[in-house]
Design a protein that fits this description.
The complex is a heterotrimer of chains A (273), B (335) and C (405). Chain A has 273 residues and is mainly α. Chain A has helices at residues 2-19, 27-45, 48-73, 78-99, 112-115, 117-137, 139-149, 151-156, 161-187, 198-208, 221-240, 245-264, and strands at residues 103-105, 189-191. Chain C has 405 residues and is of the alpha/beta class. Classes of the chains: A mainly alpha (273), B mainly alpha (335), C alpha/beta (405). At the A-B interface, α4, α10 and α12 of A face α4, α5, α8, α9 and α13 of B.
Amino acid sequence: MSNVIVTVLMSVGSVFVYSLGNMDISLGKQVGLYATLMVLITNQTGSLLPALMLCIVIALVFATINGAIGQLLRIHPIIPSMVIMFVLSGVNSMIYVNIGSRNIRLTEISNAAFKSPLIMFIVLLVEILIVAYLFRFTKCGKYARAIGANPMAAQQCGVNLIRYKVIAYMIMGICTVVASVFQMGYTAAASDGTGTGFEMNVMVALILGGMPLSGGMKSRVASAVVGAFTFALLDVGLPMIGIPMKVASIIKAIIFLIVVFITCRQKGDRLPR
Amino acid sequence: MKTMSITKRIAGALALPAAMYLIMMALCYSHGKMYYGTWTMWRSLLVDIGISATCAFGIGLQFKGGRFDFSGGAIMLLAAIIAGNAAVENGNNILVFILLCFGVSMICSLLVAAVYIYGRMPIVIVTIGMTLLYEAVSCLIYNGAGINITGVASLKVFSQFPLVLVPLLMSVMISVFYSYFTTTGKRAVLLANGQSVAVSIGIQEKRNVFTSYIYSGLLFGLASLIYASTKSLTGAFSSLQTVGELFSNILPVFIGLALIPFCGDTIGMIVGALTLCLMSFGLKASFTAEFGASLAIAMTGVFMFVFSVVTAQGKNIGRRLLQSFGGKKPGAHKE
Amino acid sequence: MKKSIALALTLLMLAAVFAGCAAPSSEPAESVAANAPAAPAAAAAAPAQGGTLIYLSSMTSGKEHEAAVAMFEMMGKELGYSISVVYGDMSNDPAANLQAVQNAMTDDVVGLIVSQSGGVSEMMAEYPDLYVVGTSIDLNEVYGEGGLYADLLENDKFLGTIGNALISGSDIGKLHADYVLKNGFKKVATMMFPPFAFPQFAAADAVLRGEIAAYNQSAADADKIEIVGDAQVLMFAAVDDNYFMESAHQDLDCIVVLADGIQFVYPALKNAVDAGTMNPNVKMITGGFSSEPGFEKEIIDGLIGAVYAPAVESCIYSMVVMDNALQGKPSSDFEPLQVDGPYLFIETAEQRDAVLNNSIIVSASPEDAAMSWEEIKQHLTRFNESATQSNLIEAVQGVSVASYS
């Protein structure tokens, strides 16, 4: 269940960034960092709140870097996220080297709340509703889609590209922090491998849900929900029905290709880009 | 149009690796690592440059065509596992090894092309799907055990000097041949820069894509020759595990594209691979294993960031620096 | 119409997810409780009638993994269990390990055999009625001072563990020190996996250095042994070529690798020797055995002077302890101990050939195991009520290279 909830929470938040036509490959490392900080600070202070606040601040900083730097300095938006991914790789590794252990465990508070399906459902529902509202009915979402569709046109219409890109990344960052709470909370532990590959899970989930990777007006929050659940179901469901893991991987890949063939196939005389 | 003098071209091409070499040399010497810059270092570095550059050529070939290909790492892994195991089963036969490296890489690449062309799906999605498939296959074949030929002297020749130069030089030749001496390569540039116009004037996009994937398959085959020989490989049991390989080897592509005005993208990618390998070697040599490995990864990211900023904003930065040192303001006229 | 169908399917999927994922310990616990006793000490409950054992493996492939799975499957078949193999996380992430077990969990699972420590406590909390035993894992998180999972020792369902060869760093260090001293090496270097992940190797390195320092105190100057520098830490990646470019390392005659040297050290060492920058007579003593092509000549005759490898037969201990508990018949002296695993120390060509030709870690066939099924049965209380844990430990720890000669 934790796998499902984390993927869905992250995917829903990522809709904003993917609707810009961007992708963030540092998500997995961010989850690892937030989970680690939450365990360490909570063990020190006895409360999750300070850790949560710090993680949100860090997420907002990363969002500003990712959203603003690319636009300001005219570099490809994947470069800042790649930099953050590389830097966090090194930082995470050094944290555990200094701690002297591969795993750390939450000892000061109970993690029962994070394992409750009801709480997971409520948090998920609240996040989906908030993000969906922001995406459909507020300027943040509309301008994010407009920027993804045609940044030049959006800019000419008076949209402040930097501001709305930063806001998009901030929304994704906050959703990532929420996902990290559940990732850490389910086992009350974090390790140097926490979060590995999560950005790829989000990408695959969004693609499965029919999200256009180039962003634009066809982006939908529903893509994230459907795609993330589908992905998680495949991940969890195939082993559950007794299919060996090695065979399950091939089946997942084939199902992925079939689903995207149905949903993403384009007609025309030119090959899609 | 003014063309750049040969001196400027050479200086522009070599400035980056030369600067990196000097900085890392100073760092290493300050830590007592006097072997930096010796022939022994270069022999070892050539292998790293070989993998990095050949992989970059494969990725770059598609990147220049406007296609971001995630499947390169998975293709290399699968080719290495199949070719390595088959070669071992045939008495460590190097011919089998070479042929299968090329064969498997090309078949996998062509499969990607076929799915892209006939599936008519965005290339990123196709390559992600094919990466998942190839990784899953790598876990199934030979029970996911992968291959370890680091102990087989006859098969690991391409991971040692001087034979490591063979795949490197061949990949340079293939890349140059494709880009400058084939109509496919030239048409690929047209398609990348104006797909509608290019198709409208009669360029067969499907044939072009197919042919380009044959070439990138060849390049990945060359990369897997070295890749298979340098370390123990196992099946990819985590989804999109091989994409990390892609992101490590795409950096020379970015550097190569930035150095086009000086030396063209092919030489530029080699320069990029050389620069990054020098930096990685220097950092790992200077610092302890724990710190050095983490620092190398982090510094690679920072370096790419700085490099991207400088190439994107270099002229603006230069102009502002001149202004601050009493140069002309923009718009000021000569009197 | 299409949208309505899509919405209906989505709602159905969501409902299925929450129904399937809710109350994780309800169904499996109920069915296990019907078959298994509440505590090992209570012998009155009915014996388990088969079922499934989940084996959480730390390896995904390779001969050692195949051999372990083959052994578990053989023993499982004889005892009426089916074995479900799941793969742990490469980084030992607790959440990923727990997820792997959850994905494999079915109604008929009666026990967990774990060779990954991450998430063990959470697994036992999630599935409180399942017995858990470690195999090829030291579980220092349970037994170590101030361990993360020390509370598991209070849990009746925790059956202890058998290590991946020797557990104590001190024992490992002494073994390697004896090899160095016996073979008269004069210039030695050490390498190891990171201490934060493998603290026993750091302890072994310290003991090794202590033993050599003690030797040097009484040795003549010409016989003293030099240990060059601190231990080189291998951050789960191969040693860099630059290690063998340092002048202090180029004339080493022994490298003690407290890690899988074949994977992480051998390629760079071989390159350095072939390039002429390294002493061609250097010998590496390493953990991990390889029957991969080319290595049969390298072990003993080549660069690999000795191999210290865990024996796959450690899985026999785990299976016996698990079955005894599931049958409600733990041995009279049973305690959830942390037991040293058997190991193979190969330092001669004859020993190497014996392992290559006769051992299960090359053939992955249970017929080549050092203990036959008839011998294993003697330690199962369902066949032999007087079987004891101490006899079992002695039998399993008695597996060595000599068992294959």
